[in-house]
Amino acid sequence: MKITMAHGSGGKETSGLISEIFAHYFDNPVLARMEDSGIVDGAERIALTTDSFVVTPLFFPGGDIGRLSICGTVNDLLMSGAVPRYLTCGFILEEGADTEVLKRVAQSMAQTANEAGVSIVAGDTKVIEGNGGIYINTAGVGFVRSGIEIGAGNCRGGDAVLVSGELGDHHAAILSARMQIENTIRSDCAPLNDMVEALIKNGIEIHAMRDITRGGLATIAGEFARASGCCIELEEKRLPVNEQVKAFCGILGLDPLYMGNEGKMAVVVAEKDEQRALQCLKESRYGENAAAVGHVTHRENGMVLMKTAIGGTRVVPELMGEGLPRIC
Amino acid sequence: MTDRKDFLKAYSGEPLRFMEVCGTHTAEISRNGITELLPPEISLISGPGCPVCVTVTDYIDRLVWLARQPETTVVSFGDLLRVPGSRESLADARADGGSVKMAYSPLDILKMAKSEPKRTYVFAAVGFETTAPVYAVLLENAIAQGIENIRLLTSLKTMPPVIDWVCGNGSRIDGFLAPGHVSVITGSHVFQKLAEKHGLPFVIAGFDGEQLLAAVYTLVKCRGRAGAVNLYRSAVTEEGNKRAQAAVEHFFEPCGAAWRGIGIIPSSGLRLREAYARFDAGSMGLDSDREHNPLCRCAQILTGAQTPVSCPLFGTECTPQHPQGACMVSAEGSCYQYAVHHRKR
Q: Structural domain tally of chain B?
């Protein structure tokens, strides 16, 4: 069945769409009440975030827009040290969208929400003119653990910088799909509950934590360096990058350091905890390729430096414009 | 590699100036922090190796004009969009209602042209020996598929004549890091000829840090001697890619070309042959060049007469966010590379 403007009218078609797809897949007691708001339990401090997803293609190796829409918001909550609990989702559907496709998306959302331990407790659907596109907004609430203070401005000299796995996978998978380049690169799209849980449970002193998305590790390191008034020194040799992604980037003149993931994080921990933190990451789900990639220093405050593979040093600039393939 | 690093670090002889003439080399030298490993006596200078940087304002102006013609769309690589013309860039023209599209490959234009046969699609065909074969493939495809609403506005240039020009015009260069991608197509023999003519060493190298370091090491070792050394044997042969050469030869012929900051160098460009002139969007005679800002030193920087940091606009009025000249626009431009990596030399 195709989505028509009637599905956005608020009438019979709308309620049919909601009950057959969204309520069906996202089923939980709060949503089942179908009230104007979902009423949920609270906590002393809550983390609140929102994100919109407009990716094409809707399905790609390693994930789809549905999984992405859950992971993006869940990971943002996790990075603040919160336990993700509730999500809302808004669908903007273009006329002509296929309900079978929508079902697959909703199913994927439900599975991912289940994996991430969150319930989808409220939602909205709008239909607009167009050509079958599907866009999703999710907002999320998480309960902040007591005694946790994580912030980009908390990095200190000596701290260790770790990443939870290989850089650029999601970005390379999406670009490959769009450019119809055949390879086996898969998006790393995943909720990071397990590894964050492991770090906290083991008492690792986390100073800063961000999921690596658009702009890549270079962008996050820059944000940490500026917010903390310190210098992040990365080591090129230690950066984990999948061989295929490396080759793909080489051909297109892209740099994995600036490419987005959807299931990786960068974490800055106290110097004393470097090895333990690395072990926690490596032993947790989606963290097997974690690596310690650098340190916080005061060499050039506010800047990111890279020790290059051949022993030179360079400044890692902020991302400017869109990463474009070279022409020569 | 450590030996080479130690050798270079310890070099204290006469000052040496080596020029790279490939935008990717310029970018990779910065990215690998190569200059950090060299003593002050050894300078690496970026020559006219970035196709976007050497494009004259007349050419940009013509693209801007084309973008405003009815039923006409200009299609371009991304980094050309922001290059200032005498008044506007393509990006300005687009914001002002001109029809401009960005493409990743010239071949993208085939699909566009097919889907709208009444609209003329003009590709901004800039590039060196490396990109020219892709335009040849584009035309082969257009002809085979009977697509007639494609045009090229060509600003195609060839490397050997401009290197020859730099050598002959008092730039005092002690050796060249020959352009890597270009060598794949042309073969190493063209650089052997130049080396012999000017009594200088030419080293052909790939793009990773070790290759670049090896190239500088070889240039220092071979200083004062004429000859081309090929360190990039995995990709570069003596004769080059004959098939690509033949495809280019079929559609294009040599012509004089205008280079930003240099002027017209005879036989340094490629234009469509008479038989394919129907695909040309008016590329001839686009030779004048006007600096967008009179203080801009792009011209001197491209020929090695000045470095980016000696330009009065560098880092103040001219930044990657607000470029005044082409060398700051392109990600492979020397000013851009100096700026983003905070290079001092």
A: 1
CB B259 within 8 A of CB B56: yes
CB contact under 8 A, A308 and B126: no
pLDDT single digits (tens) A27-46: 999 998 888 889 998 888 99
CB contact under 8 A, A328 and B51: yes
CA distance B54 to B301: 11
Which string of DSSP letters, residue by residue, matches A8-75? GSSSHHHHHHIIIIIHHHH--HHHHT--SS------SSEEEEEEEE--SSSEETTEEHHHHHHHHHHH
Contact A328 B23 (CB under 8 A): yes
In chain A, positions 151-180, which contact chain B (CB-CB < 8 Å)?
179
Does a structural domain hold residue B196? Answer: no
Residues of B with CB below 8 A from A311's CB?
5, 33, 37
Run of H or E residues at B43: strand B42-46
Closest CA to A287 of A158, A191, A185: A191
Over residues B19-30, the pLDDT tens digits come to: 999 989 998 999
Q: What is the DSSP letter of B314?
A: B
Same domain, A35 and A130: yes
Range of the domain at A110: 5-144
Given B127, B210, B332, which is nearest A310 (Cβ)? Answer: B210
Q: What is the pTM of this model?
A: 0.82
A123: left (phi over 0), alpha (psi -120 to 50) or beta: beta
